[in-house]
Amino acid sequence: MTAPTVPRDSSLQASSGGLKAELRRTQRRRKLEAVALVAPLFLFLAVFFLAPIAAMLFRSLDNSELPSAMPRTAEVLRAWDGAGLPPEPVFATFASELAAGQKARNLAGVAKRLTYELPNMRSALFATARALPEQPDGTWQKTLTGANAVWGEPATWAVMRRAAAPFTPLYLLAAVDREMDANGNIVSVAPDRAIYVDIFIRTFWIAIVVTVVCLFLGYPLAYKLASLPPRIANLLMILVLLPFWTSILVRTGAWVVLLQREGPINETLQTLGLITEPLQLVYNRVGVYVAMVHILLPFMILPLYSVMKGISPAYVRAATSLGATPFTAFRRVYLPQTVPGIGAGGLLVFILGVGYYITPALVGGAGDQMVSYFVAFFTNQTINWGMAAALGSVLLVATLVLYWIYAKLVGVDGMKMG
């Protein structure tokens, strides 16, 4: 008999190399397919999520009004040391571009930017531009000072120098009730102008209260839904999801009708003899809490329900069979397993709550408006996009910090439970 032919080492290596190459091609093809599948999602997030956030952050620092309208003036102002009044070349350059801007009618942005720090600068700038002669009366410093006394004040030129920079902390400082003095130091604003820190505190307080109330209302409801038979639980879940099919504006308007002094709630309480006079339930903080809890409650129930549905009832039964009371079994066995749902639901409701605008604007009073109301005010009415972006940026940073704290706490608790 002829002995079987044994493949040579080179043939084995070639076969192995071909298999490895084919495996690499297959893996590469699968990666490309996965990238192609998620590429639309990444593109959507980049265009509609990341890009607006980046634009908002840029707007909060943008200081392009004076450099774009008066580039040479901005250049000489940045080269000036900022002590006292600027030298004559700065006055001459400013006068030249002021006259050119008056003819081109592009001084509105400069006037608006300067008015943020000096209230009368708009009228002073346009009055000086209209009265500016073609030739100076001696020096341009004397001519400008004669046209308006503000050009002879060092504080005016300190503001001009800050406005000449391409970026500014003006809006971010104003968003936390701070400003820069004539020497460039960061100081607190006057007490009658310090409003934004209180608004941020109010915003976070309302969001915290709404989150806590949603947790206390949503936890037992989610527990009941998770313990019911699927047929009944699905029917009740439809009722939980029903508010998602109704506009927020419609729901908020409905609460205005229900909570007003002549509304059904006050009439029912008076009919039952619980009150003698109608209660003020709308256009105050009570109305804000009621309407926001009603709108945000499903966002608390759904994460809790998804977590509770995966918890086996055998754990609690085992604890009670070992001598634990029902409350002890719930507190030490069931409740710790629902912490991820509590954290997810609480974080979701809180983040949605801090950004609410329509509900506080319609149901709340003047002292119940949140940060989003002032963002809309600066965007739509005063057209101060820098201030609107600064308020949004501070709110974003504060929310990210709170999320980081939450992630740290949940991570620590998770390690302890593990």
Automatic annotation (TrEMBL):
Lineage top rank: taxon: Bacteria
NAD among keywords: no
Region spans: Disordered: 1-20
Keywords annotated in UniProt: Cell membrane, Membrane, Transmembrane, Transmembrane helix, Transport
Domain ABC transmembrane type-1 residue range list: 200-406
Annotated compartments: Cell membrane
Topology relative to the membrane: Multi-pass membrane protein
Keyword Cell membrane belongs to the record: yes
Transmembrane segments: 34-58, 199-223, 235-258, 286-307, 341-363, 383-406
GO biological process assignments: transmembrane transport
A GO CC term attached to the entry: plasma membrane
Family per record: Belongs to the binding-protein-dependent transport system permease family. CysTW subfamily.
Protein name: ABC transporter permease
Organism (species): Skermanella aerolata
High-level lineage: Bacteria, Pseudomonadati, Pseudomonadota, Alphaproteobacteria, Rhodospirillales
